[in-house]
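Long-time lurker. I teach an intro course on protein structure, and each term I like to show students one example going from raw sequence to a predicted 3D structure in token notation. This year I'd like something fresh instead of my usual example. Would anyone be willing to generate the tokens for the chain below so I can use it in lecture? Attribution to the forum is fine with me.
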Amino acid sequence: MEFPDSPTWRFLYCVLVSLVLLVLSLLGSALFAKTALITFMLISICYFTWILSVVFNGPMAVAIPKVNTPAYRVLVNASDPSQGTVEDFTQNLTANYTGWSFHTLGENMFPNYTMDYTTEKPTDFALMFAIIFSGVTGLMAGANMSGELARPSVSIPRGTVQAVFTTLFAYIATAFLMAATSSRYLLQNDYTVMMDTNFHRIFILIGIFSTTLFSSMSNLIGSSRVLNRLSHDKLFGCLLRPAKIEIGDRNPVVSVVITWICVVLVFLVGAMNKIAKLTSIFFLLSYMGVNVATLALELTSAPNFRPTFKYFSWQTCALGVIATGTMMLVVDASMSALGVVVLMTLIMVLHYQAPSVSSGSISQALIYHQVRKYLLLLDVRKEHVKYWRPQILLLVSRPASACSLLDFVNDLKKSGLYVVGHVRKGDMDSSAVVDPLQQVFPYWLSLIDYLKLKAFVELTMSNNIRHGIQQLMRLSGLGAMKPNTVVIGFHELAPSQATLQESQLLKDLRFSKIDRAAVVEYFTAGDYMPKELDGNLERLAPVDYVNVLKDVLHMTKNLCVARHFSKLDKEALSRGWNGQKRYIDVWPVDLQKPQETGLGWDNSSLFLLQLACILSMSSRWRSYTKLRVFICVNSLQDMHRRERQLKNMLQTLRIEGESSVVPWDHVVCHYQPTNGASGNTTIPSVDLPPAYISAFNDMVKRYSEEAAITLLNLPVPPNSAEDDGEKYLEMVRNLTDAFPPTLLVHGVSSIHHQPRDTVHHQPQPSVSRERSRSPGLNPYETVPCQPSSSSGVQPGPSGAQYQPPIHIEVSVDFTRPDGQRTRPLLVENRRLYVDEHYISVWSPVLRAWCVECPDRELILANVQYEHVLEMLECIHPTYKAVDDQSVHILLPLAYDYQMEGLLHRCECFLISHNLPFLEKVWIADRYKLNRLLVLCLREMRPNSKVDLNGSRYYALSDRVKVLLLERLHGAAAPEEILEPPLDLEPYQRQSDVNFAAVRAKTGRLYYVNPYYMAAWSNVFEEKLCSTSSGVEEMFCPCTHEELKAFLMAIHPPQLRINETNIGPILMSACKMESPALLRKCASLLLSPHTQLSVFVRLSLLDRCFLHEMLPQCLQMVLRPENLIQMTQQTTYDCLSTRAKAAMMDRLGILLDNPGLQSHHCSRCKATNTCGAVTWMCPSCKTYSTDTNLVRNTNTNNVSTTTNTGYGANATTVDKTQQGYGTTSTMNTGYGNAGGTVGGFK
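-- Reply from a regular --
Happy to contribute to a lecture. Here you go:
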């Protein structure tokens, strides 16, 4: 009897058989085990019958089956093949079965791929492997049914290994037996050759059916169990929820039915060989996944992963991964790539979307292993400002009232660390069973998850809130991932109201075991969690709050104080404001230094700008807001220049934002330092005038009232929080009253990097012409000389040096990094920040260290912090003088670091300074100061009294001792060593230090270090700021002589400025905008010991636009006739109107008390009191300070007042009249005289 054979009937046969398998699977795993045993016995019997047939059957002809339709095709017309073929089943096609034959085995030993007659497609190794591999997939049946096994940890490895070796032996034996008994033609055209050559076909038929039945049943049951576990773990959500249904002894009935439906759908393919490659690839993927999982567990060293398989190792896992991956590519590369993409997609979806499962996730072990490894590699000593990012610790007391702030800081972190810290006030009770913080920790985690914050939670307990905050700041984070910025809410007069609502939280959270209603109730119950705080809720006192702010700064962390964030509505940002984007306003103004209105910003202002830039780059803020930077100026004339500079700086820093320049002279006018401080001195924040704070508040509200958020500089907290804490908080309240959401920032981090050859950020602001620096600087090596008799200058009393007030003040703060000074020097565990380019010019030793250790701090051992600071102040653009104390500090450092320029300065000071003879000789010998040594020997006379028994003498070298003794015994004095002239040869060729060309306007070229020049010149500073590419060549506004003088004056050893060279140096300092050099020149011009006439000094100051120093210069003129002589100079007309007006003011002051009788006057004899002249006789032009000679001014005296335009009232006398009965009035203003004085206009 033959069954019908067609694709439809074959599908029905498969469905009927699968129904039988479905029934058996629904009956449970116990029946499957019994069926497996019976099936194994049947298969073994059938296979044994075929072995007997191979042994006893002889040669025979085997008919080719009719299902091999290609074999029965013949040509319709043999003479014309183009007419096609037709199937002729009347043919009697046979193939040879040779029985056991080594000749047949030899013929079949090598491959010869032909067409597969079931698919009529050519075969190859990949297809053969895929077909055979599908027959060994049952090896994983035991692993799939691990839940049904009594001892899976023993049964699975043992059964799998036994199955592998049994199958391997059976397959190899079958292949060799068939190859030795059947011809190649038979094997290629009859896939049922075992059935056709057996004693009886029924045995092989039963064996094939039993094998297929058991394999299908095991796959059906195994797949249903896997599907059931997927549904229990909720890996695919509600999609597989029905698969969880179980009956009886945990029999997943629905999973079995779903699996059976999938099997029926596969039957529609028609032939297994068509999808053999696909099934093999997915099986290989599953095996590779198992190997990868075990390899990952082994490499991550999971303590609870303890496999019992004797030969398990990571090498075997890796070999399995490589082997399966290779065979996937061999089977089908394109389909393998598709399978890998599907697998990776599933892994990503499950990793990010799937909930936690009872069996755990290998991804957590991998993440832990990688995080630990890379945290160890993340070395805090390798930090670089180029890769700086904010790592924020947000201190929260009542999270129910800080939801907006929590969300805002989440936008501000820029992929950095975000830690939410909270301090619980209390003690750890030793009798408590568990830590009380463990009970509240899940609520905090759920709140973070429901708010969708990417943050960690740190809770601590302390008796004192301040001490607890210190613990959080020190211990939060791990390794190099520790907070560098602390954000804290402002201390309001009354606690903020709770704003946490259930609608603000996510609706569903897979990982949280606490629903959102419970979270809201917990954080809003009573006055914030009474069950957590046990009713002991206390706010920080103002003093403690201010101390917390100071603690943050003392720990060198950036500080941000947030206020008015209850007004922040991020949903309103999307709606815009009048159809326009809202602004993120930045006010980088230092209220304690209102005179610093330029772009030479310190770290705090740059950090402020960086935070605003990060916020504007956040997704929602970028779409609905724009960055706007304000800069305040004191003069309307500077607005356009400042705006251009601000735009250039934003462009250099690659910050997209609008620039706005605001005049604030109406605000600065209220700034009146108290306690006698000068206008350039930084006063404490608590001493800022209320009117000044109120005016600034009104100005900010006028410009930023509708801003989305405003960022300001935070005034520095007071030194004494106990005395000024409440006053400081009141000042901050008045400062930010009625503002939009405001972030007050004080930064200490250096967040901008300046590479060696390219300037991307703001150069150092240390010499910015807008920045006033600390006073108290003395000029370097003043040249002693006698005053000129024609100048009218008189020396001060007792020969004391006259020090006029100079308002060009320059200082450098080395304790904090800025835009250019980013290289830290570690001295006695304290850091000083320098510019490596600058110190490389002075010291080849430090330059070599900078090259050898790039981007790392330099450790200076065996030196004192104060000494290094003194050295840095001496070589930087402050012109700090070498004095009695500093020379002994500077000499060892200059000698050790080979600073020849500094050694030369110290040598010049010692030459002109009085020290004990042997001490001078010892210093010259110790530090190789040959010029000083020669001068000492020349001053020495034969038979001089020299202490040859003292410690100084014994400390001398043998060479110097010999020279001393020879000189004592009458040897000739050595020839004098002249001071070496300054050489510009190093600047005429390019080198590693001087790598940029600077060209004078006359065409002469020199090579300099642009960063060193920028430290001295604001012109170069702005050029570097506006240069986005490498610095190669720059132009300066000086002539060749002026540029040469400038280079010699600023480069070591720094040319001594005197009367002969002050002209070009002063002009170059003016054109190059060098505050330090201007101050040095001004000190020399205003010194009474300088051998320059007052008119020459006045002309130089006037040409350099130092008009504020003109009155100081004219104070050296004590007689009116000297001023009149100055007006008769040929170059008088070249003076500006401001210089002429200053001369008129001085003349008015000198003529303050006219009208005395001529016969009562006497010429002043005391030269040291000439500055106190109060009256003059108009007849004989004599002066006196004797008030007894003053006659009654009510008779024959008419006085007139002159308005000079500088606020000084003066009188003037018309010299054309005899006597002084008549006077004329003059309004000088800026030199526009209304009358004549002394015969000149």
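Some talking points for your students: The longest strand covers residues 625-633. Residues 639 and 731 are 29 Å apart (CA to CA).
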